[in-house]
Amino acid sequence: MDRPRRPIAQLSQSLVNRIAAGEVIERPASVVKELVENALDAGAEEISIEIEDGGRELIRVIDNGGGIPPADLGLAFASHATSKLLSDEDLFQIATKGFRGEALASIGSVSHSRIISRTAEAPDSCAYEIANRGGAISDTQAASGNVGTTVEVRNLFFNVPARRKFLKGTQTEFGHISEMVLKLALPHPNVAFKLAHNGRQVLDVPRTNAEDRYLAAWPKEFHEQRLTIDLRDAEITLRGIVGTPEIARPTPKYQQLYLNNRPIRDRFVQHALREAYRGLTEPGRYPAAVLLIDMPPADVDVNVHPTKVEVRFRDSGRIHGLVMAAVRERLLGSDLTPLAQPRGDDATPFRADMREKLATFFRAMPSEVVAPAPATSSDPTLARFELHAQPAPQTSIDFTSRALREDDASARVAAPNASSGTNDRSQDHGLASVATTDNTTPVASAPHATQPNAPAIQLHNSYLVAQSDDGMIIIDQHALHERIMYEELHARLTRGPLESQRLLIPQTLPVSSRQMAMLEQIQPLLARLGIEVSSFGPNTVAVQAFPSFLERLEPAVFVNELLERGEQELLDLHEEELLHEILDMMACKAAVKAGDPLSAAEIEALLARRELVERSSNCPHGRPTTLRLSLRDLEKQFKRTGF
């Protein structure tokens, strides 16, 4: 059935404003955002927000800014009327929060609104007001009021019942408002904010310094786990705080990004932040961060989205690199070893089952200490802690026939040479063959390094317990060795392809057409990693060469797992990201496993390598390798008096 033809007609201004309101005013929190941003643009130093019924009945924003002159007040509710744009050129260097000139017009078209304003030049108590009832704008009238502006918005969406119907509950809507006010307050430490709901003050954010204001976005237990960021690169400034990997969360709730003090969402900045924490947090977890980017307004387009939360950088690659480098450098220069339990007077005690396991272990610990025999570079017990230039199949450890395993003890102790430091111990145990790179300098975790003369204990063939300067550390042997392998592999790749060994008999495996296409796509990357795979038929490939250090693995099994993961997770990654993922797999496969007993010399070698590797606090997948327990924590557990 043909639809009747309708003539083209220009929409009425009230309908235009309601359509604009649908884009700009999503919920009461959107109104608060627009009004608070106007107050900030007016130079306010104190902003008070009063809410009733989650914003349905009343939103009142009071500021002590410059105010609106009486002659301009009549245009406040007019569509596309603004004092923030004067020419076409201003559109490409916007330095204010609001600039479209449609916020107040849109708000007034779907509510009963009123503005009372007074400038500093006005006579005492001489203010002016104007009202807008669903698009019907009154004349400007004299009123009384303080210097600044008060905007009242009542009966929001009274004439748009469908929108009002879909608002959430009172507490939910007020939760969005509270979150919005805090988000707007973070980059403005010189402005005081107050928020009240139904007559009760909920938020009071006084003027303070920048770092204390940033911390207002985080719960108190995060405050001690922060690292400050302060970097200037030409005309771009990056400042703020980031959390340690320990406080990363499953959602980006504690991640706030700003551009020229405007809250934004930007996939380039978010990706840079995620990449900075790669290998330090578990997949799917988001680091806590408050990052503020300041740059010339002409280098960014903020006029991309009606709510102005999305922006377009002129040089997004530069911003991505700057954020990733600044955050990563700060992380690598800090001690990221997580605490075994929270600090403070309210710290919760260890779980009862863990206390019992520790007590049982120490009661059953053998009375004799197993001292390591002098080790050389040819010591076969250290083979798994080195990357050899040539394959050495005879040096791999037979876990089933080691003499130390015969006593079937759950713990072993390694006593390092008293006369040698960390670097000397590395050479004594044949670790000097590992190439010296920037990745093999002592890391910032040195304050919690193991003491040279302290014994180390293997617990349940999975964990190492050692004394540190300020207490003790507990190490996951697999996670730590995995990190060591990853960093050394990455260092090797900077000098050229990994050493590989051709197989006497190529190993074949079936592949799907999609896997075959993936193999063709990543062949250059596999060649860098010492893996050679070629076609061996319509649906079969053959592994011709494989990295020397992965001698304990079946090449076909590894390649098959890589292809299966690629189909599900890795196919859309950039080459550098894919490289990291494959190195993760290699390091995980080559590292010692939980349950592998270690000799005293191996324990010592592993701990020595810990001091030479960056990011040793986390494995490549982001799991912690080490927990530390301070003397103060121990004294609390044993209820020592005077502490």
CATH superfamily heading of the largest domain: Histidine kinase-like ATPase, C-terminal domain
Strand percentage lies at 15-25%
Uncertain regions spanning at least 5 consecutive residues: 342-355, 361-381, 388-448
Largest sheet: 9 strands, mixed
- Whole-number average pLDDT? 76
Helix content: 25-40%
Radius of gyration: 32 Å
Coarse shape: elongated
Task: Give a quick rundown of the structure.
By secondary structure, the chain is α+β, with helices and mostly antiparallel strands.
Strand-helix topology:
Elements: H1 13-24, H2 28-41, E1 46-52, E2 58-63, H3 70-73, H4 103-109, E3 112-118, E4 127-133, E5 136-137, E6 141-143, E7 148-154, H5 161-165, H6 170-185, E8 192-197, E9 200-205, H7 210-215, E10 226-233, E11 236-243, E12 255-259, E13 262-263, H8 267-276, E14 289-294, E15 300-301, E16 312-313, H9 316-332, H10 352-364, E17 413-414, H11 422-428, E18 456-459, E19 463-468, E20 471-476, H12 477-493, E21 500-510, H13 513-528, E22 532-535, E23 540-547, H14 555-570, H15 575-590, H16 600-610, E24 626-630, H17 631-637
Parallel strand pairs: 1-8, 12-14
Antiparallel strand pairs: 1-2, 2-7, 3-4, 3-7, 4-5, 4-6, 8-9, 10-11, 11-14, 12-13, 15-16, 17-18, 18-19, 19-20, 20-24, 21-23, 22-23
Helix pairs in contact: 1-4, 2-6, 8-9, 11-16, 12-15, 13-14
Give an overview in words:
- The structure is a single chain.
- The chain has 643 residues and is an alpha+beta fold.
- The chain has four domains: 196 residues, Histidine kinase-like ATPase, C-terminal domain (Heat Shock Protein 90); 122 residues, 2-Layer Sandwich (Ribosomal Protein S5, domain 2), CATH 3.30.230.10; 174 residues, MutL, C-terminal domain, dimerisation subdomain (formyl-coa transferase, domain 3, 2-Layer Sandwich); 93 residues, MutL, C-terminal domain, regulatory subdomain (Ribosomal Protein S8, Chain: A, domain 1), CATH 3.30.1370.
- It has 17 helices and 24 strands.
- The strands form five sheets. Strands 1, 2, 3, 4, 5, 6, 7, 8 and 9 form a nine-stranded mixed sheet that branches.
- A hairpin with a 2-residue loop joins strand 8 and strand 9.
- Helix 1 packs across helix 4 and helix 2 packs parallel to helix 6.
- It is elongated, with a radius of gyration of 32 Å.
- The termini are far apart.
